[in-house]
Specification:
Elements: H1 2-31, E1 36-52, E2 55-70, H2 88-117, E3 119-120, E4 126-127, H3 132-135, E5 143-147, E6 150-151, H4 155-163, E7 171-177, E8 180-186, E9 189-190, E10 196-197, E11 200-201, E12 204-205, H5 210-236, H6 248-265, H7 268-290, H8 298-311, H9 317-346
Antiparallel strand pairs: 1-2, 3-12, 4-11, 5-6, 5-7, 7-8, 9-10
Helix pairs in contact: 1-2, 1-6, 1-7, 2-5, 2-7, 2-8, 5-7, 6-7, 6-9
């Protein structure tokens, strides 16, 4: 029974992140006077639909996507309410709104998460004895301001950076000690597992008020956006490969593991907090990925729209459609490869 409930939770989280993305496109299009033919959650065969006004609202079989189908989105139209006929800056806003709504959802969920769990600051809670940090006279209570030139607000930013650190070169660490900025040179130590560490730990503390909750919620959103870009950088530099990528199946499997672990260690509250954290990661990641300037993604469409805005000349719709069509085929091919890998991994 727990496996069924886990699946329901996973589908709800996926569906919510996709729905808010498509709702961003939908509501912005409606407010801009664009005719929306269909608003769909899921892909594939239609399971249920209802038509209200000019728009069909549908639920489709596969909970791995969704769409907001607008008149004149991929073809020419003489209708003044067609997407292709409204002002270019309105079109830019409509296309960007999906990702913006994902970021908004991540921010709102972060408020709930931080109000419940506390804030993750840049303050050092513990320094491991005989570690690189201890040798550099870094102490508990110090606040890490910069690590290797990178501004640090959350202790997890240090953790994610050190996961991919692979050098014997010393790191420049700028700390705040009782209001005084001090620069330290720290030589990370390689552990038996091959990971470099400097020997410091952070932690959480309760927020001191509403403003701090809001402030750290913004930083939480920043952390997940920054982490997504950092992960993409590792992909393009070869530090991670295709085997490290996950699609809906792999993400669902990872989320199922998180839920199962939370169920084993605690009760419903632990499950809720872990699912909440995963949802923040997922919706922020979805927002970033959709803004990548690749054909078939929102970012690819924004490239064409920005070219039009700057040159005041429309790219021919047939040529743009061809580019997005090729991009969609390549994207679906990549998703199929990743999905097959994820399914194989389920049985290993």
């Amino acid at each position: 029974m727990s496996s069924i409930w886990n699946l329901v939770i996973i589908i709800l989280v996926f569906g919510s992140c996709i729905m808010i993305h498509e709702f961003g496109h939908f509501i912005t299009a409606k407010k801009s006077g664009v005719l929306v033919n269909e608003f769909a959650i899921g892909m594939g065969p239609c399971l249920f639909h209802v038509t209200k006004g000019e728009t069909k609202y549908s639920l489709r079989l596969f909970p791995i996507g969704g769409f907001c189908a607008m008149l004149g989105e991929d073809e020419a139209s003489d209708d003044p309410r067609a997407f292709c006929n409204i002002h270019v800056w309105k079109r830019i806003l409509i296309v960007a709104a999906g990702a913006l709504f994902n970021f908004l959802l991540a921010f709102v969920l972060s408020i709930v998460f931080i109000a419940m769990c506390g804030v993750n600051t840049n303050e050092i809670g513990e320094v491991t004895e005989n570690s690189a940090a201890a040798e550099a006279d870094i102490r508990a209570g110090d606040k890490v301001i910069r690590l290797d030139g990178r501004r640090i607000y959350n202790f997890r930013e240090i953790s994610i950076y050190m996961q991919f650190f692979n050098s014997d070169e010393p790191l420049e660490v700028v700390i705040d000690r009782n209001g005084e900025k001090i620069t330290k040179s720290v030589s990370p130590q390689k552990t038996d597992s091959g990971v470099y560490q400097i020997g410091i730990r952070g932690g959480y503390r309760q927020a001191s008020g509403v403003l701090e909750v809001i402030g750290y919620s913004i930083l939480e959103l920043r952390y997940w956006i920054k982490t997504t870009f950092f992960s993409l950088k590792q992909l393009f530099t070869g530090n991670v490969g295709l085997k490290d990528l996950s699609g809906p199946v792999g993400i669902g499997s990872a989320m199922n593991d998180v839920i199962a672990q939370a169920q084993a260690q605690g009760g419903a509250l632990d499950v809720f907090v872990n699912v909440l954290n995963f949802a923040i990661l997922l919706t922020a990641n979805l927002g970033v990925m959709n803004l990548l300037p690749l054909p078939a993604l929102d970012g690819g469409r924004l490239v064409f729209l920005l070219v039009e805005a700057l040159t005041r000349k429309k790219v021919p719709s047939d040529k743009e459609a061809m580019v997005h069509g090729i991009g969609m085929v390549l994207l679906l091919g990549l998703m199929a490869v990743i999905m097959c890998k994820d399914i194989v991994n389920l049985f290993h």
